[in-house]
Amino acid sequence: MSENIVPHPELRRFIREVLAAQGARESDAGAVADGLVWANLRGVDGHGVSRLPNYLNIIKRGEINLKAQPKLTHDRPASFVLDSFFGFGPVACMAAASLAVERANKIGVCYGLVRETTHTGAIGRYAQWIARQNCAALVLGAGPALMAYHGARVRSMATSPIAIAVPAGAGGAGGGGVRLLDMATSTISNGKILQAKQTGAKLPENTVLSAGGEPTTDPNKAEILLPLGGPKGSGLGFMFEMLTSILAAAPIQSRALGPEQRKRHVANLAMLAIDIASFRPLADFATDAAALGAIVKALPRQSGFDEITLPGERSNRTEVARKKTGIPIPAKLWSDLERIAQANGVTMPAVLQNT
Fold this sequence. Notes:
This protein is α+β, with helices and mostly antiparallel strands. Helices cover 40% and strands 20% of the residues.
């Protein structure tokens, strides 16, 4: 299947202009565009510009409040709740990351909650940003029910991503001195299904169920994701809901699965920022972190492994490459973007290459 290769500044410009045409503030449109392009640059294409059509559908349904401004509703030295009022996820989440770092620098640690936002994007972006401010980061996500709880054959839990990042010396190409783990608690992310729909690829076996609760590898029939490690993945998702949604007095799953049967798109996020220097000198931490990475990479390899990679290493390399060569956009997604461009009076991204 053919694809167009576009430079990342052009892709960011396109997303920003489309959202602005929908009525978003310029700063908000830019924050969302930054988040989607961050994912594309790192090869997490299921959380990149492929999300734009769905964002527009959520706006059309009136489920994104284009005029919302995040506001603190709980405010203490080492904790806060930032209410998004159903605004753009990346806007509230980046504001929360900044608050968490500011307070961790003063008191050592800070635990913050982002309440009732919309799709937050790839949460590794926030963890990485926190780590670049010389803090360790733990970010937990909660959102709509897309995954089956272990043993269930219906959507009953979010894919509940987790991202952990630390400053780690050199950090590898493109890493900005950060070691980053970013993963869902489902066998694959919902973004991977979206990406497979765009490319026509089959899904791995034992990762999704059809609407009828039967296993499938067809992305067009995939309706329910399976938890990573069975009870381990669904257990993590359950507890993430406790530490984000329920702690923020904004339950998602009980309102969606219980008598209310709420259908609105909503997400919550929790983030813990830890000031490294409050525990030990930052340079010493980074030296030890880099040493551990070097030791692990030098371990004897199993047959079939050319290299042992560390968390975030492959994504770092992809980011370096794509900043130079551009971001690939599959043909089906390109057609969707052309329709969006026409409907919003926006110029399509310039093309570096068509393959």
